[in-house]
Each structure stands twice: as C-alpha cells, then as structure tokens.
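INFO batch 0412 | record 1 of 1 | parsing
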Amino acid sequence: MSMAQCVEALVAGDKRAENEYKLFRIGRFVNTNYDEEMSNVLRFTTHFVAEQIEPQYAAAMSKAEASAYESTPDDPDVMLVHGGSSIHRLSTKDWRYD
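INFO prediction complete | emitting tokens
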C-alpha cells in the first residue's frame, strides 16, 4: 500500500468516526446508532465511557431478548425466566436466581 493510499484510508476512517458522533447540541455528542438507554449514558458521561459500555450492553440486551419473563400468580416477588430449554426463578426482593 502506498503512502497516498494509507493517508486516504486514514482520512476516510476519521470521516466515518466523525459522522458517527455528531454534535446535536453545543457540547453534547449524539450517536445515531444508540437506543434510548445508551443515549442517556452518552448524555451523562463522555463518548469514551459509552464506547466501553456499549459491548456489555449489547450482550446483555441480546440475552434479555432471548429470554421470556413471566410473573408468578402465587408470589408477586418472583419472576419465571424462560431461556432456551430451562426455566429459572428470579426473586425481585434480593435478586437471587435459581
């Protein structure tokens, strides 16, 4: 790769990164790919922190979407979590999961 191609690739990468975070209001970054919760993280922290949190948040959301949640009629403080082929009980009082 020639020097001109390297510089061209770097400039193109910078443009993409610049377009990903646009200043919506003066001094505030907005990422158009974020949902409401990640936008709140970005609003209260820096975009560096949001970038560190995003992979963990995406993994947690994909697991949450793969599960189904159901309240139990006999105990309102217990939720049944259906995930794959197993069912677990989640206590909302102390967040114990069995």
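INFO post-check: The longest helix spans residues 47-66.
INFO record closed
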